Amino acid sequence: MIKKGILGVLLLWSTPYFAQVFLQIDTLEEVVVINHYATKSGGPNAVQMSASLEETLDRDADLDLIRRGGYAAEVVYHGLSGTQTNTMIDGMRIYGACTDKMDPVTAYVDEQNLHSLEKKGSNDVTIHSLNLKLKRGEFVPTSKHYGSFYSSVNSNNLGTRYGGQYGFNSMRLWLLVNANGSRASNYSDGSNREVRFTQYEKFNAMASVGLKLGRNEFSATLVKDKAVDVGYAGLPMDVSSADALIARFEHQTMLGNTNINHQVYYNSIVHVMDDTKRDSVAMHMDMPGWSETKGISGRLNQTRGNWLLRAQYELVQNSRRAEMTMYPENEAEMYMETWPEVVRSFASVNPSATYYFNENYDILVSASLSTGVDKMQSPTGIKQLEVFGYTMPDGIQTNAGAGSARIRFRKSSFEHQLTLKAGNRAPELSERFGFYLYNSQDGFDYIGNPDLKNEQFLHVSDDVKFDQLGQQFYAKAYAYLFDQYIFGVQEPAYFAMTPGGGGVKIYENIGKAFILGGELGSSLFQSGKIPTTAVISYRYGRSERFGYLPQMSPLAFTLNHTYTWKKLQFGLSNKWVNRYNRASLSFGERNAKNYWLMDATISTNLPLKSTNILVELAGNNLLNQYYTTHLSWNGIPLMGRNISLMAKWSF
Amino acid sequence: MCAIDPINTSMKTLQTLFLAGLLVSAISCKKDNPDPIDSFEETISSNFTEIASQTIDSYTLTIYAQSDLIVGYNEIYMLLMDADGSYVSDYEVHPHPMMEMPMMMHATPFEYPKVVDTEKGFMRASTTFIMPSTAGDWHLDYHVHVMDEEYAFSFNPTVVSPEETRMLSFVGPDEKSYFLALVSPTAPEVGENNFEVVLYTKLDMMSFPAVTDATMEIEPWMPSMSHGSPNNVNPVHDELGHYMGKVNFSMTGHWEVKMTIKNADGTVLSDALAFDITL
């Protein structure tokens, strides 16, 4: 489950190349390998090699998925909201263009673009960040071409996926291109009923090139992602098109023992909602959204004696807007700006230092400071805020800061680390400037509050790991304490704008809140016949004023086995999740029943001359459970039994 | 940027408008306009519509409005010129608006002119026409007193019904007729707008005094979506039957501003009033 860069460090500690190699280990954070086609190793994440990005993320005990349809699930880390977790694509800031969170960042990449997911804790202003690392080529002494084609079909929603990749690695140049498509019809739930508006279609392509000139390495990457006709069963609207372009230029070099990396990037998202496929809409609406981000970021890593020093900086400018035009019958059309155009510009610095006292103890100290300004560009937006009695200054300062410390003790097979992080986060755009953003789950229109204060947090995490003779056990416990917690509070004096809506909520700092959680895990018999992993996880959250916090996953237990017989590899995964009876009613959540998901796979590799064909037959939700999770938006049921067949030819 | 929209400006600020207008044109139009100082005539002609002009003996009275005259509240501006073509600054005007119908005649609510520009003798009055010209002939008579002489100017303007009603009439439980006219907003915008109405009652066919002791409540409402907007300010009496408040429109589209009017005793005169306002 957890592959820590530090394990690598541990092995390399005593070698003379320590410093050199160390620098290549980019992060000390948790890394989840995403691309299973590329990895043939076992492990719990590799039970199903044809898993989609969302399926892979869903198997991670730290992560849960908010599902609003059959596509574009939103990742939740430890029950934290999307604004408390920062999701990036390979270090690039990117912000969805949908006011209703229909386009989480993870929707704008394909698993084929990705190398791994980094779960970062220390080096960001936000509590956590998830970094989707893109695949890249390598500079290698002997040139090599490689590539693959794959295709898969699903029984449940007649979904198909296909794609191809070509790569070339050499001493001074590498190339990597891939193109991927997928489409699916509506899926059926565990009672074999079709869940309407869960269809989707997506196309994605990535091209990346790397060049090495002396000590300088350059790379350029372009990702184009377009989803069309995406159903959102949990929402009153669908998406006709979600389009992203991501571009990045990167430079990396070594100066003495300092590794320097810079990147300049740009991304642009256009997101268009669509209500024309729904049977009954009170009134037709157009709701497009735009998001554009430009950024420069860089980092320096240096080893100096027993110190590992690291500094990062970022200059980012994000411009976002979304509007809504409604067309009542025989009446003038109505127009408003749900996200009046706002440009958020910020600069952040993040110095950190790790000191290795000896082989057993090290300490990491890190600080993050971010300063910026939100400027509203739209005169209409300023006028709209007047309605709520806010006068917009020229710009609203957006400052945030965080500091963290981590002490780690390692001795032979034992590792213990204690992490402490405190800081605050600036309100997100919706929280500050959103204008009647309809939350279809609680039925309220949300209105931003330009006067919000930063949300304060304190995070403590304690991780223990024990590894003996291939049997690994770990336990982690964590707590998040918040003050000035940002939450929507009903304002009874205001009218809902959305027809049939329950009212208006205004984002406010509601005081204190906390999340407690933990995981117990083990990885057993890794060199035996049936490698097995087991994980139990649980989270609990409350706020001072509004009872249970939303998004807290109930007790969940996962058990994975793999088994190899002759040329066949078998995988079996069982996940049991307890009932959810702590729904946050003030967030419109509903309780959910307990469920048990069983997945199984059989795969084999068929060598063909110097190439390989991987065939995998997978069954998901074999018990055909009818289930909803605590994060099923409006309680939509998830997919019932699904059998998929995947073939991949690689050279 | 250089345009000055007087329609947005309430009566009270008109004087400021002139000064500011000249100033703004002088400053901000510098780049586009090599001759920065607009003449008084240009300012008038760019901001007002000439309704009519009449010459009696050596005096010419010209009346202006912000647009065509409509059923409802109209600001009417006037200038008096003598035979030399110079503006007369010292004169008095007594308006006598009258509707002549086949069977009867009646007056309509109006306000006496006040001087806006002392030097040029530019005056502002108002007339609240309670019906369109299709019902009969409007006579807008102005008795002008200048140099101890009286001149009776008489105009015959056309009054049209605006696209959205700007005047409502009703009979209260006291059996009196009331006329409620919308003064502002004339160019409504998303956000906060000044909301100003004027209330008259009818004593007899010739007398329409202002009601100065009513209380009013407003509620903006979007009928197609069944919602209102928050933080509105109920109009309160300012002077001469004018009531000033604030109305908030959270989006463009068709709004109704519903009104309830009570008299000094708290008796509801009407709670079924609504102005349609489309942004």
Kindly describe this structure.
The complex is a heterodimer of chains A (651) and B (279). With 651 residues, chain A is mostly beta strands. Chain A has one domain: TonB-dependent receptor, beta-barrel domain (Maltoporin, Chain A). Chain B is mainly beta and 279 residues long. Chain B folds into three domains: 46 residues, no CATH class; 114 residues, Immunoglobulin-like, CATH 2.60.40.1080; 112 residues, Immunoglobulins (Immunoglobulin-like, Sandwich). Chain B has a five-stranded antiparallel sheet, covered by helices on one side. In chain B, strand 15 and strand 16 form a beta hairpin. Chain B is globular. The two termini of chain B are 21 Å apart. Classes of the chains: A mainly beta (651), B mainly beta (279). Chains A and B meet through strand 19 and helix 4 of A and strand 14 of B.
Q: Provide the structure class of chain A.
A: mainly beta
Helix content estimate of chain A: under 10%
Whole-Å distance between the termini of chain B? 21 Å
Radius of gyration of chain A, taken over Cα atoms and rounded to an integer in Å: 24 Å
CATH superfamily of chain A: TonB-dependent receptor, beta-barrel domain
Annotation field: number of helices of chain B: 2
The secondary-structure element order of chain B is HHEEEEEEEEEEEEEEEEEE
Detail the poorly predicted runs of chain A. 1-28, 35-45
How much is the average pLDDT of chain A? 89
CATH architecture of chain A: Beta Barrel
General shape of chain A: globular
